[in-house]
Design brief:
It is built from 15 helices and no strands. The longest helix has 25 residues. 46% of the residues are buried. The N terminus is likely disordered.
Length: 298
């Protein structure tokens, strides 16, 4: 005699669907972007901004970046199936229909603009949409598959969140906002090239012209070191401009020195043994640079 109980697999499926749509937004990637957004807001406000403004800017920023990532899943479903690390993504694995992923991404972008426009201002909303357009149009649709400069130019999309945060607080974009943009912009190549060294075979199999695939491992390691040196110099510019003080200066020098040492060890390594350490430290580095900005502002 049946009891009317719902099988566990069926009961769990709605949660699985929700989980897949959350995965489309790439929450782990977005978390770092939100740190840079919040950091810029604190620097712009000279301390902590209003709680509701901070909350809704974070929500709007998440939705914009999440929408871009969801559209990216739709566009890249062909090459995702040829890369070992992406074969389980919801679209390529068949758990989310491509059309639904596209509609979901577009809807998140529209909602993000409304949230930011109504809760902060329309400049912040426009910047968030510009970041989405850069990521989808310039990086994913154009440069990712055609140029070894894909990360250098396309990476500008990942540098937009500090501009969104700054604009949400001030309603404009001053020099300091663009310096925060520059920090993320110059951080992006050494961060992604370290990852590309680890995933060279994946990128080659998918036909993506990442630097190690096109120019080789040694040139990639040399470029990582060069860009790291430039990036550390750029992180000192907020002090020169007066946007940050002594605490941030010391923090930037210490954090940057560690990054340079790791990049130098990677450059001298006949293999790529230091690529993983460089990549993981780069994530911590960017977060701590913006935390240092927040502490300094407070």
């Amino acid at each position: 005699m049946t009891t009317g109980a719902v099988p566990a697999a069926v009961a769990a499926r709605p949660l699985g669907v929700v989980g897949d749509y959350v995965r489309l937004t790439k929450p782990r990637v977005i978390s770092l972007l939100l740190v840079t957004t919040a950091g810029a807001m604190c620097v712009a406000a000279g301390g902590l901004p209003g709680g509701w403004l901070l909350l809704w800017t974070m929500v709007g920023g998440y939705l914009a970046a999440g929408g871009a990532n969801a559209i990216n899943h739709y566009i890249d479903r062909d090459i995702d199936g040829r890369m070992a690390r992406t074969t389980t993504r919801p679209v390529v694995a068949g758990r989310v229909a491509p059309g639904r992923a596209l509609v979901f991404g577009i809807a998140l972008g529209v909602i993000s603009a409304l949230v930011l426009g109504l809760a902060a201002n329309w400049l912040a909303a426009g910047l968030a949409l510009a970041g989405l357009a850069l990521y989808v149009g310039v990086y994913t649709l154009w440069l990712k598959r055609t140029s070894l400069h894909n990360i250098v130019i396309g990476g500008s999309a990942g540098a937009v969140p500090p501009l969104v945060g700054w604009a949400a607080v001030t309603g404009d974009l001053g020099l300091s906002a663009w310096l925060l943009f520059a920090i993320v912009f110059y951080w992006t190549p050494p961060h992604f090239w370290a990852l590309a060294l680890m995933l060279e075979r994946d990128y080659a199999a998918a036909g993506i012209p990442m630097l190690p695939v096109v120019r080789g491992v040694e040139e990639t390691k040399r470029q990582i070191l060069l860009w790291t040196l430039v990036m550390v110099g750029v992180t000192l510019l907020p002090v020169v401009s007066g946007a940050a003080g002594a605490f941030y200066l010391v923090s930037a020098l210490v954090l940057g020195a560690v990054f340079i040492v790791l990049a130098a060890l990677l450059a001298r390594d006949p293999a790529i043994g230091w690529a993983r350490a460089t990549f993981h430290y780069s994530l911590l580095y960017l977060a701590l640079i913006f935390v240092a900005l927040v502490v300094d502002a407070a």
